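Q: I'm building a small set of examples for a reading group on sequence design. Run inverse folding on the following structure and report the sequence directly after it, with nothing in between.
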């Protein structure tokens, strides 16, 4: 069985605990970087991370971009969406199919 983790500031991710997901708190980029690598090392299959934290550690997240596990998925934080996750989705789709299908 694979584990799923949620990483972010307390206010943004605490609600995920009610869904049965494992929640980890980080408020700084250093805490987030340490935690993302620790979760990957512990073989978490999916790591949800707030866009705010992900924006602070792009190199750390990029290390797992082509790996099967963990799948690192950006989620909006308490501030709302920063648009980073949609931009990442666009780039992934463009890489997969060769064209930007979201282009107007």
């Amino acid at each position: 069985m694979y584990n799923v983790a949620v990483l972010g500031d307390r206010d943004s991710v605490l609600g995920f605990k009610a869904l049965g997901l494992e929640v980890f708190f980080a408020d700084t980029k250093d805490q987030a970087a340490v935690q993302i690598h620790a979760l990957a090392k512990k073989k978490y299959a999916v790591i949800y991370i707030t866009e705010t934290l992900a924006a602070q550690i792009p190199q750390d997240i990029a290390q797992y971009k082509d790996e099967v596990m963990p799948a690192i998925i950006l989620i909006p934080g308490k501030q709302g969406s920063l648009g980073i996750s949609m931009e990442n989705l666009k780039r992934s789709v463009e890489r997969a199919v060769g064209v930007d299908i979201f282009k107007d």
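The chain has five helices and four strands.
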